[in-house]
């Protein structure tokens, strides 16, 4: 019995122990399961109306879009993607995926589709969309080449990758994927167009709408006016109570919905070279001068010693920068100039050679595999014979060339300078710039070619100049010194209060920014996405690690978290106070004018301590009045007032106004109902296209977790 009584006495403890054990068992099972709640919650970028966007789907689309953008930048600008592009592409892809889901749901609910025949017509039929046309338009003539498009599609959609070598197969695959993305985009745009058209038709104007639109622009007036600005009354003389602020807040509350916001304070330290780094770089280039001046292998020497790659090509002297051009014009072969300091770099030049040759050549080719067997060589000889006997080069290129890009355009490679041609090797450069105008063969790193130079520019003075360029960069010692300075500050000021209090004394300038989950730029940083991600994973009062962003060491502190929902009244006090100040000042001005009882515009101007100004060509539809700004009340009053009749005082956005119309013009052009209808529908379509997605997002159930991943 004693034992039983002890057990009963410890029953509460036993229940607690068993409860803890069961909880540990359940949590352990959850953590070890491949389909746990936690993993399910983590494994989604977003959920849009119940449809998941997984990291894998998102990343695949980001990669495709990045490759497209990279190719475009290389083709159009000859450069890689700019800094910050990755974060912006991520956001663009996310927005597009959300939009696709919302529009797919909306169009499916209405039964809207794009048929195969309709899509074919938009891509290669009689109504080809501009997106496709611009890809196959000659930049010189501006003429769209439909045959080029059809040839491209024949190759890209039907060619077997297994028949091509590795590089060509990769190119074909990339172009096929790019085309399929274009198809998807065009189909989506067509669906969106149908959806918007349906929506705009639901807002089609009736007779009264058209008459109102016409009448709104029918009467144009000039008027004289006097204004007393709200700034004429000091804010300190106007009393605003807490209850007034609260009442206005509640009245406008629906306008203040917002995502969760996070406030951070941060400082940034530029990672720049020290004085010692400049001296070290200058010494290094001076030590290299003798070798640079005497070596017979300038390409080999520069491959290890310069920050600007050596280009083994002759360049037109007129295209050189002034310093190099002056040197190239007067120097002797192998003469060296420098070092000089320019653009944060130390530079030396060495003249390798001079020539007089065409600046550019226009060439076309038929390309065969690099490892050409006897059969291929016989085919090349046969084609050369056909060409020399008057054969059609463009047709043969389309039929036989393995370079699918140029084959679709008759083998045309366009205009090449020696600098752009050097990638094909010196044999190629020598053949096209120094050879004749007939057909010839040449081998390059890319394959075997049958070539023809179709045009050459006039010969110009050219020079081959080797450059040894050393950019001054922060050394590891400088890097460590700056990093240690920032690190020491964090170690000594790991709490928010001291972090804020002591920054200025240590030479750090704190910046305050409010962030949303979708932000990319942060303050002066073009791409501060890492800071945004950190802020949304942290707790109020946390101090970040040291970020290395855009050549800056940066440290942030999370100073405030505003939950999603309605922005708090405190954060909107200044905004609301401005409205209340304007209203109260307007009442004060109008009361003062009423007491003075002026009867003329001159008297009103005197009572307002103002002057008389004029406004011209104002209609009911005018959005901004020249010299005044946005004052809808004036556009509503002036066009319907009689000439000479005093109007006002009226309360505007910026002050109190009194006006008198001096001239009124009524349009004699009769109403054209069809034209007014077109303008009205265009206006409605523009409003819909700019706002519909935000409305759809606002009404949708969207769980956005992107900030946890990217």
UniProtKB/TrEMBL annotation:
Entries under InterPro entries matching the protein: PPIase_dom_sf, PPIase_PpiC, PPIase_PpiC_CS, PpiD_chaperone, Trigger_fact/SurA_dom_sf
Subcellular location: Cell inner membrane
Keywords: Cell inner membrane, Cell membrane, Chaperone, Isomerase, Membrane, Rotamase, Transmembrane, Transmembrane helix
Top-rank taxon, per record: Bacteria
GO molecular function, one term: peptidyl-prolyl cis-trans isomerase activity
Gene3D superfamilies xref list: 3.10.50.40, Porin chaperone SurA, peptide-binding domain
Gene Ontology CC: one annotated term: plasma membrane
Bilayer topology: Single-pass type II membrane protein
Transmembrane segments: 12-31
Domain (PpiC) ranges: 358-455
Similarity-based family: Belongs to the PpiD chaperone family.
Protein name, UniProt field: Periplasmic chaperone PpiD
Organism: Coprobacter fastidiosus NSB1 = JCM 33896
